[in-house]
Amino acid sequence: MNDAEFALLAKILKDRSGLILGDNKTYLLESRLVPVAKKHDLTDLEGLVAAVKNRPSENLLFDITEAMTTNESFFFRDNTPFDTFKEHTLPSLLESCASRKHIRIWSAACSTGQEAYSLAMILKENAAKLAGWRIEIVGTDLSPKVLEKAKAGVYSQFEVQRGLPVQYLVKYFSQVNELWQIDASIRAMVSFRPGNLLEDFKSMGAFDVVFCRNVLIYFERDTKSEVLARISNQMPDQGVLFLGGAETVLGVSDEFKPIPGQRGVYMIDR
Amino acid sequence: MKSCLVVDDSKVIRMVARRILEGLSFEVIEAVDGKDALDRCLETMPDAVLLDWNMPIMSGIEFLRELRKTDGGDAPVVVFCTTENDMEHIREAMEAGANEYIMKPFDSDILEAKFTQVGLI
For the domain A80-153+182-268, what is the CATH code? Predict the structure, then answer.
C-alpha cells in the first residue's frame, strides 16, 4: 500500500469516527481490511482502495470504519479506575445524589461491553447500600457489531480470564457450552445503543459518571477538546470523568480538573 | 523476590510457566505432582502455587486440601491452572481454598492478569 492509499483510508476513518491512524499502522489496515475486501467481493486491498476511490457504497465505508475501530476490551481493565470508582466515586455519589436516588453512568466507546458490565458488578456488590436507588448504565459505541455482542453478554474463555476475578465469574456468569454468559440480572442493569462521539449526544441526557477511556488518545487535539466540552455539557456540577491511563484533560479542556490523588479521574470545573 | 511453586506433571507446561513467571521476577520451584508439591511446601512455603488439577499420585485438589490443613499452609496464594474448565470444578477449587483459577490454554497475559488480581504482582 502506498502513502496516498494509506492517507485515503486514514481520512475515511478520521472523517467518520475522529480516530487518527498513525503512519506506522499499515499492518493494522492490512490485517483488518482484507476481510472487508472479501466481504465486498473485492480481490484484495488494492481492489478495496480502488472501490473507495470510485464512488464507494455507504456499506463499504461503514464496514471499513467498523473494522478499523473495533478495539479490544476486557473486564476491570487496569483495575485502578474500578477501585477508585468503588472506594471514592460511589460513596460521593451516594451523598450527592441522595435526594433523587438515581445514578446514571455512561461507558463511552464501550466496545463489547466489559467496562459497563464491570461497573454493573461493582454496583451489584453494593446492592445493600443502593436499595431503593435507580441505577442506569449506558454503553455506546459506533459499531453495531460490538454492540450486538455487548447486549448478548456472551464471552469466550479467554475473555473471561482477562481481568475478571474468578469469584465474579462464579457469581455472575453461566457456562453455555464453551462460552460464558453474564447473568440476566447484570445485563438488565446496562443498556447499549449506537453512539458516535463526533455526533451530538444531547438526547442521551445527563450522566453523573462518564467512563471515556482509551478513546481520546486516538483523536486530534481539537477533536479531544470538542468532545470533552460536549461531555461536560452532559454532566452535573458534581460529575466525574474517567479517562485512560495515558490520557489527560490538561492542555485540552478547561471544563474538567484532576481530582487530587485519583489518577485519570476528573471533576467538572465550572 | 517472590517464589512460585509450579505443580504440573507436564514438563512442557512447567517450562512455559517458568519462562513467564521468571519474566515477572518470580523465583520458580517445580513439582511433578501433588505429593511432590506438598513435600516442597513442608520444606519452605512458597508465596504462590500455580497448580494443575489432574496429576498422578496426588491430584491438585487433594494437594490443596492437604496444604490448607498444614501449619502455615493458609499463606500461599494458590492459582489453579487446568484443563478442567467447567463451573463445577471452579466452585470445588474455590471451596477448597484456591485464590484464582486459570483455564488452559493460557498465555502470559492471562497469567499476569490473574497474579495481579490476587496481589502477587
Answer: 3.40.50.150
8 Å CB contact of A162 and B113? yes
Taking CA–CA distances from B98, the nearest residue in chain A reads A166
* B9 Cβ neighbours under 8 A, 6+ residues apart: B32, B33, B52, B54, B55, B56
- For chains A and B, count residue pairs whose Cβ atoms are closer than 8 Å: 33
Backbone φ and ψ for B78, nearest 5 degrees, come out as -105, 125
Q: Tens of pLDDT along A146-198?
A: 999 999 999 999 999 989 999 999 999 999 999 999 999 999 999 999 999 99
Q: What backbone torsions phi and psi does residue A216 show, to the nearest 5 degrees?
A: -60, -25
- Is residue B93 within 8 A of residue B80, CB to CB? The reply is yes
Where do the domains of chain A lie?
A: 3-69, 80-153+182-268
Strands of B48-51's sheet in order across: B27-31, B3-7, B48-51, B77-82, B100-103
**Quick check: B100 and A166 CB within 8 A?**
yes
- Residue to substitute from B95, B117, B120, B121, interface A, most A β-carbons within 10 A: B117
The number of CA neighbours under 13 Å toward the Cβ of A251 is 4
Window 67-96 of B: residues touching A by CB (8 A cutoff) are 85-87, 90-91, 94
Cell of A230: 460536549
- Closest to A145 (Cα-Cα) out of A10, A39, A50: A39
Q: Cβ distance A219 to A18 under 8 Å? A: yes
CATH architecture of A3-69: Orthogonal Bundle (1.10)
Contact B117 A165 (CB under 8 A): yes
Chain A hits for B51, CB-CB cut-off 8 Å, are none
Distance spanning both ends of chain A, measured CA to CA: 47
Is the Cβ of A98 closer than 8 Å to some Cβ of chain B? no
Distance CA A180, CA B81 (A): 18
Q: Do A79 and B117 touch (CB under 8 A)?
A: yes
Q: What CATH homologous superfamily does B3-116 map to?
A: Response regulator (3.40.50.2300)
- B119: distance to nearest CA of chain A, Å? 11
ipTM: 0.93
Exposed/middle/buried for B43, CB within 10 Å: 0-12, 13-18, 19+?
Answer: exposed
pLDDT in tens, A72-82: 789 999 899 99
